[in-house]
Design brief:
Number of domains: 4
Shape: elongated
Number of strands: 11
Distance between the termini: 50 Å
Strand order of the largest sheet: 8-11-10-9
Structural class: alpha+beta
Number of helices: 13
Strand content: 15-25%
Order of helices and strands: HHEEHEEHHHHHHHEEHEHEHEEE
Helix content: 25-40%
Largest sheet: 4 strands, mixed
Radius of gyration: 27 Å
C-alpha cells in the first residue's frame, strides 16, 4: 500500500494538507493517487520515463511496472492499453498505401537491347537475333545475349544499372555472418536482395540481381537506422554471396497469419508485454509486417540498430489473410 513504512524519499516528506491526509481518491472504478500525490511522485523521481500515449488518462503507474521496458518505436506505455494504442497507430501507418510498395514500372525505361546498342556493347544483328529468339522461345533478353550471342554478363549488369539509374555493386567487404543479421532470410529468398556491407558507419549497401525493390530498401532504412543505397550486381557474384548469406545463422524468425489488422495489433501488443524489449520497430514490406525486437542492450551492434549477433534478438513476420 502507498505510504506504508518510513518516508525516506524527500518528495514524500514535502506532501502537505489534503494530499497527505487523503492520498488515494475513488475515480468511480478504482482508487488512484490524488493529483498532488502523482505530481510529487514525478517531481521526486526526475528522469523517470513517462507514458507516451496521447490517449492515456491514467495518473497512476503500477510501481512494479518497469519504466525502461517495453519500448516500441521509442515510446513507453504505462499499461498494456497504452502500448496497444502505439501498436494500432503503427499498424494503421504501415497499412496505408505507399508509393514505394510497388516496384517502379519497367515500361517507362529504355529497353535493355536498345540501351546496349546505343552504348555499342552489342551490334544491330546481335540485337535482332536475340529479339527473334525471344519471340520464339521467351526468356529475358539479357540472358539470351549472354548464352546465344556471347556477350559478357558485365555489360548486361552495366546496362541494367543505367536503366535503373543506380550503381553497380561489388562483394568487396561482404561479411556473411554480419549481413545475415540485417533482414529475415525470407526477404533474401522472395525479394531477391542481399545486404552487402556497411560503409562509414552510416550507409548500408543493398544488392539486387536485375531490378530494384524500393519498398525493401525503405523498410531496411527504417529498421536499421542507416541510409540505404540500392544497386545491381553481376548475376554470378550476387548468387555467390546470397548462398554464403543463407549458410549463416540470422535472427530467429517466427511467422504468423491473421485475418485482420486489429487482431494482429493485439497479438503484437501481447508479444511486447511478454518479451519486454528495450527497443522494437514495425515496418511493412509489400504484404508482410516485420516486427523486430531488441531484447537486451547488448543486442545492438556497432552500426546504428543492426544486431551484434542473433542472441537477444527476435523477428516476427505477420501476414494478413485476404
Amino acid at each position: 500500500m502507498l505510504f506504508l513504512g518510513k518516508k525516506s524519499d524527500q518528495g514524500f516528506d514535502n506532501l502537505q494538507g489534503s494530499a497527505l491526509n487523503n492520498p488515494l481518491v475513488w475515480d468511480g472504478d478504482r482508487y488512484q493517487p490524488s493529483n498532488r500525490v502523482s505530481e510529487m511522485l514525478t517531481e521526486s523521481s526526475p528522469g523517470k520515463r513517462t507514458c507516451s500515449s496521447l490517449q492515456c488518462t491514467s495518473t497512476w503507474i503500477a510501481p512494479w511496472r518497469n519504466r525502461k521496458r517495453p519500448i516500441f518505436e521509442d515510446q513507453w506505455g504505462c499499461s498494456g492499453r497504452c502500448v496497444l494504442n502505439f501498436v494500432r497507430a503503427a499498424v494503421r501507418r504501415e497499412s496505408a498505401d505507399h508509393t514505394a510498395e510497388t516496384v517502379a514500372p519497367h515500361r517507362h525505361r529504355v529497353p535493355l537491347g536498345l540501351l546496349m546498342l546505343s552504348q555499342e556493347w552489342i551490334t544491330h544483328s546481335q540485337l535482332q537475333y536475340a529479339l527473334d529468339l525471344q519471340r520464339t522461345t521467351g526468356g529475358r533478353i539479357g540472358e539470351i545475349l549472354i548464352s546465344e550471342c556471347g556477350i559478357a554478363s558485365e555489360y548486361i549488369t552495366r546496362a541494367l544499372s543505367l536503366q535503373w539509374s543506380c550503381p553497380v555493386l561489388s562483394s568487396r567487404g561482404f561479411s556473411a555472418r554480419e549481413m545475415a543479421l540485417v533482414a529475415p532470410r525470407t526477404f533474401v529468398d522472395k525479394l531477391g536482395l542481399v545486404p552487402v556491407r556497411v560503409a562509414g558507419s552510416k550507409l548500408l549497401y543493398l544488392g539486387f540481381e536485375d531490378r530494384l525493390d524500393a519498398s525493401a530498401a525503405l523498410a531496411l532504412e527504417l529498421m536499421s537506422g542507416l541510409k540505404v543505397e540500392s544497386g545491381l550486381m553481376q548475376a554470378e557474384e550476387f548468387r555467390s554471396i546470397r548462398t554464403l548469406l543463407t549458410e549463416n545463422e540470422g535472427v530467429e524468425l517466427k511467422e504468423e497469419s491473421w485475418e485482420e489488422t486489429d487482431a494482429m495489433a493485439g497479438r503484437i501488443t501481447a508479444i511486447l508485454e511478454q518479451k519486454q524489449p528495450i527497443a522494437s520497430k514495425l515496418v511493412r514490406v509489400q504484404g508482410n509486417y516485420w516486427l523486430r525486437l531488441w531484447l537486451e542492450p547488448a543486442a545492438r551492434g556497432k552500426f546504428a540498430m543492426l544486431p551484434s549477433s542473433g542472441e537477444d534478438m527476435l523477428d516476427y513476420l505477420f501476414t494478413i489473410e485476404r
